[in-house]
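Handoff note, outgoing to incoming analyst
You'll be picking up this chain. Sequence as last confirmed:
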Amino acid sequence: MRTIRRDGWTAADYESEQILHQLGHRDAAARVTRARRRRPLRRAWRTLRAQLHRPAVTATPTAPAGIDWVAARAAADAVNRGDTATADRIVQATADPRTTAFAAFRFIDVH
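Most recent structure output, in case you need it:
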């Protein structure tokens, strides 16, 4: 059995809490919980970055078609909601997915 608490903590989390408690941190459980918190923006950034740096499908380079600002804004809104799959579909449907995806980063909330 991997988890030892109902909230999904693993044995490593429990050990981290015990070590922090032994070191004198009064908020050891809060620190471990904060470290386990999901980070949707970081995940979205990694996903989009990995998708942008894929090798090109075509062997011959094509001229950039330009930025689709409406699609860039829509993709950024999807990323802000944590829906990277929708953002990828929106960007891939444009004439120049790479340029539009980079333009979308202007609209992504960092807070």
